[in-house]
Amino acid sequence: MSDPILTAAEMRAAEAAVIAAGTSVDTLMARAGAAVAEAAWRFAGGCPTLILCGPGNNGGDGYVAARRLRARGVSVHVAAWAPPRTDAARAARAAWDGPVVPLEDAPAAPLLIDALFGTGLTRPLDDAIAAPLDRLAAGAALRLAVDLPSGVGSDDGAVLGPVPRFDLTLALGSLKPAHLLQPAAALMGRVAVADIGVPAPGATMHRIARPLLPEPGPADHKYSRGMVAVVPGAMPGAALLAAGAAQRAGAGYVLLADEGAGGADALVRRRWSPDLLTDARIGAIVVGPGLGRDDDARARLEAALAAGRPLVLDADALALLRDRLPLEAPAVLTPHEGEFARLFGDMPGSKIERARAAARRAGAVVLLKGADSVVAAPDSRIGIAPPAPGWLASAGTGDVLAGAIGAMLAGGLPPFEAACAGLWLHGDAARRAGPALIADDLVTHLAAARGACA
Ligand SMILES: NC(=O)C1=CN([C@@H]2O[C@H](COP(=O)(O)OP(=O)(O)OC[C@H]3O[C@@H](n4cnc5c(N)ncnc54)[C@H](O)[C@@H]3O)[C@@H](O)[C@H]2O)[C@@H](O)CC1
Ligand SMILES: [K+]
């Protein structure tokens, strides 16, 4: 885990703590505006710039940036939608001695900096704001958003009306959920975080970073590296993918509880019996990929639940789990949106809030998959994955994820950390596999992804 993610309210509280400790809002705004100017300078090389300023502190950052850029010799125009309404923004406006034109009169420039609204946005943009923003974005060669593109919901990643695409978004102080949640995240271009001296010590949400995983040492043997048991069912290919992924993600011993053919020679295959799962050396059981939903599938799931070992529950297992929550064994559930809705019903709130509520109800870690996968623990911790390649949207990639998480659990990580680590490995393997990947390629590339975690 590395970069904290704060809601708008948490950001305000972090800001208030810094202010209470003696730093003024004006100082924070000066740092934010300087960071915007520096990013614009590096990103656009001092080309003519138009800065759009809103009425709040986001606009205040824009006025500071205008002054800083002009001091570097950049041709800067400023357009405002409304006069500043906070003391700090008023002071920043007063310190800008160039002209300020109304938003609708602004001429386009090669670099557009959007400092209209940040975390204080409370409703969709009026057409009187959205239309000029759209026109000026279309007339620019490069677009930079201050903190957030104006018009996105900071806490839930919603896009409240038409919002142009940006090339760079400079998050101020900390990431906000919208920097990672869709559909907002797709509009932001590259996301960078500016340190403005507002720490977030108690953050419960983080962007998932490359995990640090131990290399096998001289005392290790196949069982100490982690034994994963994969429980197959009606569709053997899915279980094979999960088993292969567990192997390539670094498990020392992978048992596929089925006598059939296929898989690597190193995969141990045994005829299914519930007794297979009582082996005390098993560090994780993966059940669900290709399981089916008939009585036999249900019996296999029950055997897995009864084994008392850490579990990864995916796919068909999730369809059979409704009456079995909360779970007793440590577990990671990996639903996509459809499986999530079937298991937990129609929950209100953002993806983060839904995953959190589901984790509490399940008494287990819930990894809600998608282009913006969210991992939630029952104790409210949240991990959000960095954007993963869209090529992952193909058959079998979820089975690979389940297997990778199984390897992490068997390697000794607790469920939340295992889910985050498995998700990171999965995304990294996808980046390595490249365009038009298939799930089998992911399995192959997991080994290099795992190697990058030492
Ligand atoms: N949190 C921090 O530590 C810091 C925050 N700063 C900046 O301050 C921003 C937050 O400032 P504010 O809380 O003043 O909020 P904003 O500047 O995002 O906007 C709030 C203002 O916009 C109005 N408004 C909201 N939605 C609107 C809509 N759809 N149409 C028209 N008007 C609307 C509100 O009534 C209010 O006047 C951050 O995004 C960041 O850019 C920086 O200045 C410095 C440090
Ligand atoms: K903005």
UniProtKB/TrEMBL annotation:
Q: In which residues is AMP bound?
A: K369, G370, A371, D372, S373, G398
Q: What is its EC number?
A: 4.2.1.136, 5.1.99.6
Q: Which residues bind K(+)?
A: N58, D114, S150
| GO MF terms held by the record | ADP-dependent NAD(P)H-hydrate dehydratase activity; ATP binding; kinase activity; metal ion binding; NAD(P)HX epimerase activity
What are the YjeF C-terminal domain coordinates in residue numbering? 205-453
Quote the record's binding site residues for (6S)-NADPHX.
57-61, 118-124, 147, 238, 290, 336, 399
Which reaction is recorded as catalysed by this protein? (6S)-NADHX + ADP = AMP + phosphate + NADH + H(+); (6S)-NADPHX + ADP = AMP + phosphate + NADPH + H(+); (6R)-NADHX = (6S)-NADHX; (6R)-NADPHX = (6S)-NADPHX
UniProt keyword terms in alphabetical order: ATP-binding, Isomerase, Kinase, Lyase, Metal-binding, Multifunctional enzyme, NAD, NADP, Nucleotide-binding, Potassium, Transferase
Which cofactor(s) are needed, names only? Answer: K(+); Mg(2+)
Q: Which PANTHER family match?
A: ATP-DEPENDENT (S)-NAD(P)H-HYDRATE DEHYDRATASE, ATP-DEPENDENT (S)-NAD(P)H-HYDRATE DEHYDRATASE FAMILY MEMBER
Which family does this protein fall into? In the N-terminal section; belongs to the NnrE/AIBP family.
- Name of this protein: Bifunctional NAD(P)H-hydrate repair enzyme
